[in-house]
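TA notes, week 10

Several of you asked for a full example with nothing omitted. So below is the full record: structure tokens for the whole chain, then the designed sequence directly under it. When grading your own attempts, check the secondary structure regions first.
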């Protein structure tokens, strides 16, 4: 009886590990390790199964009114390419809403998932300032002049009614997730190129 006790304890511990179903990082529902499978079932490790590709998921329901571009998958959005002084580039997928939705902008969002939004003023004579009423996430905004240069980058706090403006005429305001410009090494004087015709999106 005493000689069977260690084996019994080992079996109970193995079954507990399989029931938890998590890996070392705490991922729920992860497959038990091969050694745990072998101990619990008495068989060797089975070949690993390739994970199935994730299904395309619809964006979560917003907390308020959103621009119609909210429902466009990120991979289908137009792209702005930024070029740094050192020649490096960074691409940002942007929603390009019709001008009739500029007053909505990115309000109602709980997340951006790496995308941004462009506000385009074809006469490059400037535009209104930007505020964050009903916008629930912090943002960056880059103001681009008629020559395609970034003339200002501002950080905008969620729900704030502070007005952000570059203090000079601009062609476009390009909103992005907070710190996106810094993370990509972009600064005033760097350039922006629209890899699409913004006029196609205006009303």
């Amino acid at each position: 009886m005493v000689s069977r006790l260690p084996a019994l304890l080992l079996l109970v511990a193995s079954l507990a590990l399989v029931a938890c179903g998590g890996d070392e990082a705490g991922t729920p529902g992860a497959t038990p390790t091969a050694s745990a499978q072998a101990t619990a079932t008495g068989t060797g490790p089975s070949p690993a199964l390739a994970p199935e590709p994730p299904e395309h998921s619809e964006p979560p329901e917003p907390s308020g009114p959103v621009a119609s571009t909210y429902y466009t998958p990120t991979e289908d959005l137009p792209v702005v390419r930024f070029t740094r002084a050192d020649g490096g580039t960074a691409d940002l997928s942007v929603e390009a809403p019709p001008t009739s939705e500029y007053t909505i902008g990115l309000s109602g969002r709980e997340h951006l998932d790496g995308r941004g939004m462009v506000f385009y003023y074809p006469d490059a004579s400037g535009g209104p300032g930007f505020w964050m009423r009903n916008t629930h996430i912090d943002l960056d905004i880059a103001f681009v002049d008629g020559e395609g240069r970034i003339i200002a980058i501002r950080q905008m706090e969620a729900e704030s009614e502070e007005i952000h403006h570059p203090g000079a005429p601009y062609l476009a305001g390009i909103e992005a997730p907070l710190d996106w410009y810094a993370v990509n090494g972009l600064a005033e004087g760097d350039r922006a190129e629209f890899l699409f015709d913004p006029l196609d999106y205006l009303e």
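Residues 139 and 178 are 4 Å apart (CA to CA). Use that as a sanity check on your answer.
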